[in-house]
Task: structure prediction
Amino acid sequence: MRVFQVISVTLLTALLTASAQVLVAGKCPTPAVVQFFDASMYLGKWYEIQKLPFLFQERECATVTYSQESLGAPVDVLYQELLPDGSIYSAVGSAVVTNSSEPAKMDVYYPLTSFPSPYWVLSTDYRGHSLVFGCSDYGLFHAQFAWILSRQPTLVNKTLTDLRDLLASVGVNVNKMVATNQNEVFCRAMDQ
Result:
């Protein structure tokens, strides 16, 4: 049994490292999320400013657009990014609140994955910025996900620093965050 655990941990570590996941020893942290989160104010387009590297998010000009057909319905998620060949990759999913007393904690489901992605809104002013954190436990380790989003392709440095500080306070190694290219000229194909 011990050999199986060592092999499992080794394979998981290799898989997550190869896919640029941020793997950390121990259980997932449980940071506070936005109280009284209002999904209707969160809807619309957000630009990815920085992220912890993630398997399918390796391109540039990433945006995510949230929409909802009716109050209480799942939130539709449209993730898009520019591929190196100039084409646009899109993934469509849905976000579902996991606990009605904490509506800022959601699971995002994409059709091609068999597991949900945790999506916790740690901070947002709805008009300018959003800080999203997710974490998945894998026994002795956990994988962290984080995104700093903005309603515009840029974000004020003070806000960016404050959001990175908040992430660091919950145990995220912000030195592993990478900037997403949102250069207007480079990303022009995303608007066509």
Q: What stands out?
A: The beta strands are 22-25, 44-51, 60-67, 75-82, 88-97, 105-109, 117-124, 129-138, 141-150, 178-179. The radius of gyration is 17 Å.
